[in-house]
Amino acid sequence: xxxxxxxxxxxxxxxxxxxxxxxxxxWLNFVAGMVPLLAGLVVLLISWLGVARADAKWWTGLxxxxxxxxxxxxxxxxxxxxxxxxxSVGGVNIVAAAIAVCVVARFGLRNGQRWAWWFLAFCFVxxxxxxxxxxxxxxxxxxxPFLLLPYTYxxxxxxxxxxxxxxxxxxxxxxxxx
Length: 178
Description:
2 strands, 178 residues, mainly alpha
């Protein structure tokens, strides 16, 4: 009876074996990350269009608001700079956070890393619940139905966290099942 041992030239696990050990449900968190990516790109587009077409009513992608960028100063002297900041730094930050969620889900959670699960749980609270509250407030003030994006993110993220929890925390710190 001969036993095979892995050498330095041979990896201990083949890509097929690693794929078989992927945490079930990780892809829900990956797809959830695509939602703020889409939202960030929409924020950038809407802000840029609002500034570029300063006299047109502010378009939200789903309808128009009752003001334009040129009328925005009536809301206060800080309103136009805030919109410009949202259209640059704010949108880019949303996109960056979304990319981080996707990368952590794909390379951390998929492999059963506990830190990835906790990071994504933090993102669920910080990005998801915060945005859900803020878009609800926005909806109540404007009637613009942006509720779908943050609620979709929350539903996907929560489902993914619940589905992966048992698998992630049943593994030892080196990623092997306990």
